[in-house]
Design goal:
The protein is α+β, with helices and mostly antiparallel strands and about 140 residues long. It has three helices and four strands; from the N terminus they run βαββαβα. The chain folds into two domains: about 90 residues, Ribosomal protein S6/Translation elongation factor EF1B (Alpha-Beta Plaits, 2-Layer Sandwich), CATH 3.30.70.60; about 45 residues. Helices cover about 50% and strands about 35% of the residues. It has a four-stranded antiparallel β-sheet with strand order 2-3-1-4, with helices on one face. The longest helix is centred in the C-terminal third of the chain and has 45 residues.
Length: about 140
């Protein structure tokens, strides 16, 4: 059975921006070779480390969400263990209940924001109408 996972890759700072897409493609290809399916790739950007990591001062962080057979996670880790471009790899299993709760919370917040925006627009329209009426009354006086 395929479970949902999230991997955080830290690629070496020596990987140039132009070559980063090729490195990411090769990394996701490894996941797909083992039967995984990629759902989302987020480039989190280049960051400086608090202390050197494998003699590197900075690296590029990439988050990959994918579905994968849980029994092959160790095999996937081994494939990246000796990869020169990948300084670190952290793979965690995603909790579907937490993700569903977050999605529901985000939807609730979006509805609340929409109603607050509508109320603010209505109040602004009323204020404009009041100001226009006061300006018209001031002109007649």
């Amino acid at each position: 059975m395929l479970s949902k996972y999230e991997a955080l890759f830290i690629f070496s700072g020596s990987v140039k921006e132009e070559a980063l897409d090729n490195v990411i493609a090769a990394s996701t290809a490894e996941i797909e070779k083992l039967g995984g399916t990629i759902q989302q790739i987020d480039k989190l950007g280049r960051k400086t480390f608090a202390r050197p990591l494998k003699k590197a001062e900075h690296g590029t962080y990439v988050k990959v969400r994918f579905s994968f057979d849980g029994q092959l996670v160790d095999k996937l880790r081994l494939r990246f263990k000796h990869n020169e471009d990948c300084l670190r790899l952290q793979i965690v299993k995603r909790n579907e209940r937490i993700e569903a709760a977050k999605a529901a919370d985000d939807a609730r917040r979006a509805r609340f924001k929409a109603s607050a925006d509508a109320a603010a627009a209505k109040a602004a329209a009323q204020a404009d109408a009041t100001n226009a009426a006061l300006a018209a009354a001031a002109e007649t006086v």
